[in-house]
Amino acid sequence: MDGAPGLLAGKRAIVTGGANPRGIGAAVAELFIAQGAAVAVLDRAYPEGAAAALAAGRVELHCDVSSAASCKAAIERAKAALGGIDVLVNNAGIVAATRIWDLPEDEFRRMVEVNLTGTYNITHAALPALLDSPRRPAIVNLGSTAALRGGGLLGGSHYAASKGGVISFTKALARELGPRGIRANCVAPGIIETDMTLGKFGENWEQELKQGIPLQRFGSPAEVAQAILFLASDLSSYSTGIVVDVNGGFHIH
Ligand code: NDP
């Protein structure tokens, strides 16, 4: 993003699921800070504890997005540290490749609890602060190509359903919150090189998959972060309820 510094200058952002340094959430936090935002990174990997202070534009807070109570507590701490919330990125998520005939109810429930209910939990907890924001608030949710093409290569029906739910949730938020000044959009990544995918396909299948993608490669977390920055910033000020594909052409509508 050379030549366009400060796209989020003065904004206060929440990014969930950002503890993994090789993940999309970490890339989003890094790019947001470089673009002038103060960022609270929420992840279940961080230790539980008292409110932490901002350092170098970021604060790290424990949060299990599948727990409404944990989300409320984390959002309160984030608000105290940031002074408000203008941008929310619901990135935390899990994946599993279980086929339907092997898929037990508890695994289905867990997938939905983290990916879909987790998106609701954080959004609901952060909503009063977003409504109070005078800085053109925006929500960006993480969908997936899996939701658009009938399942993922690594994700089963429960993953696809949870991400399809996130996309529908986002569109409904756009309608409900647009009149209140909040935009809500989705990014749908294809195959991105993170711990969710790295080494999971095997050498031969990986090469075959890449040949089937028009851009002939997998994406990077930074490339997803750029699309998220677009939707979080005023660059997309007249867009709400949209799904931005970041998939190298892997799925073309
Ligand atoms: P990673 O597994 O690298 O990162 C996800 C992060 O979310 C991890 O830090 C993880 O912690 C955290 N997390 C998981 N469950 C919870 C929870 N209950 N509460 C709080 N944090 C949690 O994944 P990616 O960076 O690859 O994925 C980020 C998002 O992008 C996800 O929503 C994913 O579904 C989506 N996506 C990714 C694609 C890809 O190809 N990588 C493709 C399409 C969509 P922990 O490490 O402890 O599990």
From TrEMBL:
Residues 11-194 form the Ketoreductase domain. SUPFAM superfamilies: NAD(P)-binding Rossmann-fold domains. Its EC number is 1.-.-.-. GO terms for molecular function: oxidoreductase activity, acting on the CH-OH group of donors, NAD or NADP as acceptor. GO terms for biological process: fatty acid elongation. It is an enzyme of class 1 (oxidoreductase). PROSITE patterns: ADH_SHORT. Keywords: Oxidoreductase. The keyword Oxidoreductase applies. SMART domains: PKS_KR (SM00822). PANTHER family: BLL7886 PROTEIN, SHORT-CHAIN DEHYDROGENASES/REDUCTASES FAMILY MEMBER. Belongs to the short-chain dehydrogenases/reductases (SDR) family. This is Putative oxidoreductase. It comes from Achromobacter veterisilvae.
